[in-house]
Amino acid sequence: MSFDLILRNIGRVVQLTEEEQKEFCSLLTIRHVKKKQLLVKPGEISLHENFINKGCFRNYIIDREGTERNFYFAIEGWWISDIHSRTFNVPSFAYVYAVEDSELVQILQTDLDNIMMKFPKLEHFFRLTYQKSTASIQFQLLQRLYLSAEEQYLSFRTKYPEFDRRIPQKHIATYLGFTPEFFNTVRTKILKQI
User: Fold this and answer.
1) Cross-referenced Gene3D superfamilies, in alphabetical order (predicted)?
2) What are the pLDDT digits (tens) for 139-167?
3) How far from each other are the two terminal CA atoms of the chain, in whole angstroms?
């Protein structure tokens, strides 16, 4: 089992001792997820925080009209779960879906809570991770209010070039709040200018 990537990810923020690393890693498991497999679906409680060793995921809901609405993508070195379900121990409204064959490092929420209490460095790391995630979501919402469609797509492309290559365009469209047809028009216009 390889926990090198998750330890490097944590090490960018806090330095764990060898003993802290060992204890943290004793709580981790590796899970392989096939492309198109659901990690979480509505009605289930999300019990794990998941670090992506390899692969790509998306979080989405299905709205009242039956349309998929993507609200989060994640690739190697990122975290994925239904944070609302996991935090409040309630059934999920959302799907967590593998876009590619993937490998996750999982930790149960209860184990995560306990290890953060024991090692404040880990609590610091996860607090900063969640703050950055919340800030990113807030920025995404603000962009929808203030930027034109072209500016939104350019910002997405600049900030997440890997997503633009790995995520199907129809999913990027709903992430940006566009219909696939409108997204295709915007994307074509932007690509002609580049």
Assistant:
1) Jelly Rolls
2) 988 998 999 999 999 999 999 999 988 99
3) 43
The secondary structure of residue 77, as a DSSP letter, is T
pTM of the model: 0.91
d(CA 171, CA 21): 37
Q: What is the pLDDT of residue 32?
A: 97
Strand, coil or helix: 97: strand
Pairwise CA distance, residues 162 & 185, whole Å? 21
Distance in angstroms (rounded) separating the CA atoms of residues 136 and 149: 18
- DSSP track, 3-61: -HHHHHHHHTT----HHHHHHHHTT-EEEEE-TT-EEE-TTSB--EEEEEEE-EEEEEE
Amino acid making up residue 64: R
d(CA 33, CA 51): 12
